Amino acid sequence: MPRYADTLLSQGEVVALRTRQHWIAPLVEARYPILVFIAAIVVFVINSGWSGPIHDALGVVELVGVVVGVLWTGMIFWRWSAEDYIVTNRRVLKVEGILNKHSADSSLEKINDAVLDQSVLGRMFGYGDLDILTANEDSVDRYRTLHDPTGFKKTMLDQKNNLEMDMRHVPTPPLRSPDQAPLASSAPATGGAVTSSDDVTATLSRLADLRDRGAITAQDYEAKKADLLGRL
N or C end of the chain, less CB within 10 A? Predict the structure, then answer.
């Protein structure tokens, strides 16, 4: 069964890296339920020397403490296991939540910078905080206690560079194909450059691929298409 994040991927979108928070994050969050569980164990040890009503009352406290501690801790680690922090060839995607899902993404082309903070312990255990600065209204996308933040950042920047290179290398048809005969001097002026239909078809195919991959918008594609068809 595919994970929820996989259902959010568009056609042609490829996952380059999938991760989540470091295991230290849920462990720190679960400190209180763990303390509740430990307290229940302490009460059990103390209660072993009692009898009568006090013993029965402390027995209830033990049971409640163990159940609450285990369920609370399990819920925290379940929520952690449901996280998906993904870098694709088009965007950075964050999905959180067990039953109620929350997802947020940042397009690679809109990412301006990434700020990485790692403490001494973070470098030792392989976690850190990453702030992704974008051109969106919500200008900062924060990833806290991220597992292998340096690898996440490098993969994100590599994918951004690949996307930009693809956009730069969209071929523009020449004004006249090499095998096209010069226009006769008596031919009337067309008011625009002439290009071959094969060149236009190839370029439109490449532009459509970039549009489907999310590198350019549908509006950009239509504008370029109209321009190219006008050259015929």
Answer: N
